[in-house]
């Protein structure tokens, strides 16, 4: 089957080629976003695999741009694919919810009931009595699975709706106490 008439048609030049470039950019930027997440999580064997396919797809897309420098739709598709790829990559990263987080909670109210509840639910909690600018406070530290953050925040708000908390990524945890099953 001879594809020459199709490849030289206006339909291919102005619609199909830009659509292919757009799709390639969505794929390569999505892979790049996930690759960066893998790097930050210390996944040193997965990150290069994703990087290989990211660059391979990028080379194919940029090659088509260079062959069609007069086609403004290719430029728009390239830029639109980049923007969409960022969105898709961040969306997938959020859904994957890989890794662990440290949650640090500071409250000026008694946190003993919250600590007791969290421990009953299987979470490891370290509680420290401290002094803040306005007097006595309780500081709670927890290492949790990223997928459980929303659940833990709901629990915190149930006990201390106005408590201050911060969340940070953790690259490595050597040991810890985590609930036996994933709570959603």
Helix content: 55-70%
Poorly predicted spans: none
Share of residues in strands: 15-25%
Largest sheet: 4 strands, antiparallel
Question: If strands are numbered along the chain, what order do they take across the biggest sheet?
Answer: 2-3-1-4
Number of domains: 2
SSE layout and pairing:
Layout: H1 4-7, H2 10-40, H3 46-67, H4 72-96, E1 100-107, H5 112-120, E2 126-132, E3 135-145, H6 149-159, E4 164-170
Fold and architecture overview:
With 184 residues, this protein is of the alpha+beta class. It has two domains: 4-96; 100-170, 2-Layer Sandwich (Alpha-Beta Plaits), CATH 3.30.70. Helices cover 55% and strands 18% of the residues. It is built from six helices and four strands; from the N terminus they run H-H-H-H-E-H-E-E-H-E. It has helices at 4-7, 10-40, 46-67, 72-96, 112-120, 149-159; strands at 100-107, 126-132, 135-145, 164-170. It has a four-stranded antiparallel sheet with strand order 2-3-1-4, with no helix packed on it. It is elongated, with a radius of gyration of 24 Å. The mean pLDDT is 91.
Short description:
By secondary structure, the protein is of the alpha+beta class.
List keywords for this structure.
184 residues, single chain, four-stranded antiparallel beta sheet, 2 domains, Alpha-Beta Plaits, 6 helices, alpha+beta
């Amino acid at each position: 089957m001879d594809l020459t008439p199709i490849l030289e048609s206006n339909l291919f030049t102005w619609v199909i080629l830009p659509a292919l470039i757009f799709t390639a950019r969505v794929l390569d930027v999505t892979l790049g976003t996930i690759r960066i997440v893998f790097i930050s999580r210390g996944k040193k064997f997965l990150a290069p695999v994703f990087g290989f396919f990211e660059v391979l797809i990028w080379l194919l897309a940029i090659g088509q741009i260079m062959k069609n420098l007069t086609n403004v739709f290719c430029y728009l598709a390239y830029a639109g694919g980049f923007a969409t790829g960022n969105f898709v990559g961040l969306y997938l990263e959020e859904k994957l919810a890989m890794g662990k987080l440290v949650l640090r909670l500071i409250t000026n109210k008694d946190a003993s009931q919250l600590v007791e509840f969290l421990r009953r639910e299987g979470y490891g909690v370290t509680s420290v009595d401290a002094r803040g600018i306005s007097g006595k406070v309780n500081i709670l530290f927890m290492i949790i699975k990223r997928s459980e953050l929303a659940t833990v925040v709901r629990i915190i708000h149930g006990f201390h709706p106005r408590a201050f908390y911060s969340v940070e990524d953790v690259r490595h945890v050597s040991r810890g106490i985590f609930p036996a099953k994933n709570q959603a």
